[in-house]
Amino acid sequence: MKRLVLLIASTIISTCSTEENKTVIVDKEIEDVFKRYVQYWSDSNYDKITEEVYASTMAVYLQDSTIILNSKVEVKNYLISTFDELERNNYGFSKRNKWNYFRKEKNIAYIEMHYTRFLKDSSVMPPKDRYSAYVLTKEEDKFKISALIPFTSVAK
User: Fold this and answer.
1) Does residue 71 belong to any structural domain of this protein?
2) Which of 154, 13, 12, 31 has the alpha carbon at shortest distance from 99?
3) Res 18: pLDDT
4) What is the CATH number of the domain that holds 135?
5) Smallest Cα–Cα separation from 3: which of 107, 96, 92?
6) Cα angle, residue 60 at apex, residues 53 and 74 outer, rounded to 5°
7) C-alpha–C-alpha distance, residues 72 and 99, integer Å
8) pTM of the predicted model, to two decimals?
9) Given the DSSP bridges, would you call strands 54-61 and 66-69 parallel, antiparallel or unpaired?
10) 75 domain-assigned
11) At 63, which helix (H) or strand (E)?
12) Domain containing 41: what range?
């Protein structure tokens, strides 16, 4: 866990000095994880996210608290609750806009993603530019999201 915190801290600090218009290149393995993730999220498919995208132990670092999900059951319950709130807010789908930062070394990766959420009528679900950071770790020889840092609300 200390390595994870150090990686996150060093990445956030180094991100502050990157150029705003710099194109970030993400390797195919990680890109594929996020293609599935955004599609499954748009489909509200918590089963696929639980099985294929999120690690079975995962941390969600919110602005005022941290949620540790210690099993697939806890991950699934967190997602069900999140999608219930999204449904109440008339959520339709999400679209990835751009990568802000990417770093991968062996079995750990850190990535920052900007995205937009849309309502069921295809209008933007404010704020238009949402932003989250993710830590991915290898689990059974596949990268999975083991930490999520949402800088904007997940379900509102």
Assistant:
1) yes
2) 31
3) 45
4) 3.10.450.50
5) 107
6) 65
7) 27
8) 0.85
9) antiparallel
10) yes
11) none
12) 2-15+27-150
